[in-house]
Amino acid sequence: MNTIKRKFYTMIHTPRIFMKKFSSTKLFKLLPDKLALKIMYKNTFLKKLDLKNPKTFNEKLQWLKLYNRNPEYTKMVDKYEAKKYVASILGEEYIIPTYGVWDSFDEIDVDSLPNQFVLKCTHGSGDVVICKDKSEFDEQKAKIRLEKSLKTNYYKIGREWPYKNVKPRIIAEKYMEDICTVTELEDEQEKGLTDYKIFCFNGEARVMLIATDRFTSKELKFDYFDRDFNWLDFDWTHNRSQTKPSKPEKFDEMFELAEKLSQGIPQVRVDFYQVADLIYFGELTFFHAGGWEKFSPEKWDETMGEMIKLPQKKK
C-alpha cells in the first residue's frame, strides 16, 4: 500500500484531467479516506486541502468526514431509521407516513400500495421514484433505477462516513404536494414540493436554502436566506431565482425545529417540507453536495466556513 500511496500523492500535483480519470477507478476506491479526499479536493478546487488549519466551508466538511465520526450519524442519514430518530425528538406528526421497507425491489407488492406513492433508497441521494398515478407507473423502469441505486456505495463516492454502514433498502412513503404551489400551476405534471433546507451549527440554525422546481421539468433553483429572511447574494450548487421567493409561513417554526435536531452537532443540514399548514421532516445531511460545490462569489466559502466550529479531532 505504501507504493500505491506514494503514486497517488504525486497525482495531487498532476493536471486536473488526469486526476479526474483516476478518481473513478477501482484502485482509487481502495485508497485511504484522507488521501482520496486530498485528491478529490485538488481536482475540484485546484488547490491543496488544508486539514491542519481548514478555513472554508468545503474544507471543514472534508475535515469532519475524517475526524467527526459519531456512530449515531449512521442512523440519522438512514432514510428509514432517521424517521424514528426525528419522531423521538419532535413527534410523529412531523413524519411523512411510511408504507413499507424492503431489501429488494422484487419484494415490493406494488398492488398493495396506494395510487400515489414515493420510492427511494434508504442509503442513497437523489434517486427518487415518484408515482402520481399507478395506472401509468412503469414498474420495470423503477426497478432498474432503484436496483442500480441499491448497488451504489455512496460512502466510497465522496467518503461521507455516515453512509458507510447504512443498510441499502427501499422505502415507500406517502406522496406529498405543496398545496400553495399547486394552485399556481396549470400543468398537472408540474406539481411538486418546495424543499426547505436549514444549515445548523452546534444547535444554532443560521441559513435556510429554499429549493424550488425540485421535481418539475423546470430548472432547479436554490436561494439562501439568513435568520431574518435576508436574501443572501451567492450561488451555490444551483443558480438563484430571478425573483425573491416568498417567505414560508412556517419559517420561524422550521428554524426552531432544526435547532432541536442539531444539538451537539458541529454542522448538519435539516430538511423540511411544508404541506398546507403542516411541516414534515425530509432528511438530515452532514455534507451538503459532498463538500464539492463552489460558491459564487468565492468569498462565501470562507464566510460559511466561519460558522463551523470544529470539535476536538477524533481519529
Strand content: 15-25%
Q: Give the low-pLDDT segments.
A: 12-16, 179-190
Strand tally, please?
A: 11
Counted up, domains total 3
Global morphology:
globular
Return the CATH topology of the largest domain: D-amino Acid Aminotransferase, Chain A, domain 1
Global Rg:
20 Å
Along the chain, the helix and strand elements come as: HHHHHHHEEEHHEHEEEEHEEEH
Average pLDDT: 88
**Level-2 CATH architecture of the largest domain:** 2-Layer Sandwich
Walk me through the structure.
This protein is α+β, with helices and mostly antiparallel strands and 315 residues long. The protein folds into three domains: 48 residues, no CATH class; 79 residues, no CATH class; 139 residues, D-amino Acid Aminotransferase, Chain A, domain 1, CATH 3.30.470. 32% of the residues lie in helices and 19% in strands. The strands form three sheets. It has a five-stranded antiparallel beta sheet. Strands 1-4-2-3 form a four-stranded antiparallel beta sheet, covered by helices on one side. β2 and β3 form a beta hairpin. α2 crosses α4 and α5 packs across α12. It starts with a helix and ends in a 10-residue tail after the last helix. About 5% of the residues have low confidence.
